[in-house]
UniProtKB/TrEMBL annotation:
Cofactor: Ca(2+)
Gene Ontology annotations for the cellular component aspect, listed alphabetically: extracellular region; plasma membrane
GO terms for MF: acyl-L-homoserine-lactone lactonohydrolase activity; arylesterase activity; metal ion binding; protein homodimerization activity
Leading EC class: hydrolase
Catalytic residues (positions): 121
Entry PTM: Glycosylated.
Record membrane topology: Peripheral membrane protein
Keywords of this entry: Calcium, Disulfide bond, Glycoprotein, Hydrolase, Membrane, Metal-binding, Signal
Protein name: Paraoxonase
Gene3D superfamilies, per database record: TolB, C-terminal domain (2.120.10.30)
Length: 361
């Protein structure tokens, strides 16, 4: 895995389609290029309105409903990666971003679901026509891979477990994006499920990872050839699916067809390790949690922790997407950022094993 990567003021696209995509106001001027061995603090300062959430057991992924309720997956355990609470099972936290001082609440899960082995990774929500909210969770019980489907019961702040999805085409699920009550796209960040073979495929750069489409009627590969398919999300108009390829430092823009198949439109090349992706539904801007020095995640040193970085990509579908570094910290405040989501002028940043951070934009 690469070391420090400098953020770039503009993405390189290959190839670029005609026309322009969605986007909000113009990005702020690019910051000066970084130098040295670490990222200095940049962007919203948590001491000026930010709120470090207290539980230091990771907040690997975040999904925010249009109502301002944010779901956070916490407690992910990955072999060989630092963990501050190895004895505590994972869970789902709920945060109401409409409150002045929101407090994270751990959601109760219905009886019958094995909480002792709950190891949540990427998450996604889906709102049905009747207003029902479904939460999809990539789960790794005993370091295997499943996708869990819950219905969110808002009146009592709980999750009703509906279904566990297991399939041979889901050997190493990283993230999901829900497109129906039982329908989703999922990324496999590794081709193999065996830990040794996972390391081997990375070492050999096999590019065998993929995107899967699941429905009760069938499961199939809809995109492949990635180094390490990671975060996945969808444009507000549901016409495009965005896939992060971590080790290749790329974001793939895929057109979604009526039969749920995907066709690659373009690739954004970024000079950092990209993790989870989030969409601002009001602008179509893409928000990316990144690892500027990924090696520090694997070889953890508390005196020299992994840094955090958040990118905002505007006009994703245009010939010249604008890439802005919104937040950067050398690990003194936030270690190992994985995701960034926005709501109402607020920015939530999650991490692999550290804490979550709430900032005012």
């Amino acid at each position: 895995p690469p070391g420090l990567r400098r953020p770039v003021p503009r993405a390189q696209a290959d190839p670029a389609p005609a026309g322009t995509g969605q986007g909000g106001p113009p990005a702020s001027p690019a910051q000066e290029e970084l130098s040295g061995q670490d990222l200095p603090p940049r962007g919203p300062d948590p001491r000026r309105g930010g709120l470090p959430l207290p539980r230091e057991s990771g907040s690997e992924d975040i999904d925010i409903l249009p109502s301002g309720l944010a779901f956070l997956s916490v407690g992910l355990k990955v072999p060989g990666i630092q963990c501050f609470a190895p004895e505590k099972p994972g869970g789902i936290l709920l945060l109401d971003l409409n409150q002045d001082k929101p407090r994270a609440l751990e959601l109760r899960v219905s009886r019958g679901f094995d909480l002792t082995s709950f190891n949540p990774h990427g998450i996604s929500t889906f709102i049905d026509e009747d207003g029902a909210v479904y939460l999809f969770v990539a789960n790794h019980p005993e370091f295997k891979s499943t996708v869990e489907i819950f219905r969110f019961e808002e009146e009592d702040n709980s999750l009703l477990h509906l279904k566990t999805v297991r399939h041979e085409l889901l050997p190493s699920v990283n993230d999901v994006v829900a497109v129906g009550p039982e329908h989703f796209y999922a990324t496999n960040s590794h081709y193999f499920s065996d830990l040794f073979l996972k390391y081997l495929e990375v070492y050999l750069n096999l590019r065998w990872t993929n995107v899967i489409y699941y429905s009760p009627e069938g499961v199939r590969v809809v995109a492949d050839g990635f180094d390490s398919a990671n975060g996945i999300t969808m444009s507000p108009d549901e016409k495009y699916v965005y896939v992060a390829d971590s080790f290749a430092h790329e974001i793939h823009v895929m057109e979604k067809h009526a039969n749920r198949s995907l066709t690659q439109v373009k690739v954004l090349h970024l000079d950092t390790v990209v993790d989870n992706l989030s969409i601002d539904p009001s602008t179509g801007d893409l928000w990316v949690g990144c690892h500027p020095n990924c090696l520090k995640l694997i070889i953890y040193d508390a005196s020299n922790p992994p840094a955090s970085e958040v990118l905002r990509i505007q006009n994703v579908l245009s010939e010249a997407p604008a890439v802005t570094t919104v937040y950067a910290n050398n690990g003194s405040v936030l270690q190992g950022s994985t995701v960034a989501s926005v709501y109402g002028g607020q920015l939530l940043i999650g991490t692999l094993f550290h804490r979550a951070l709430q900032c005012q934009l």
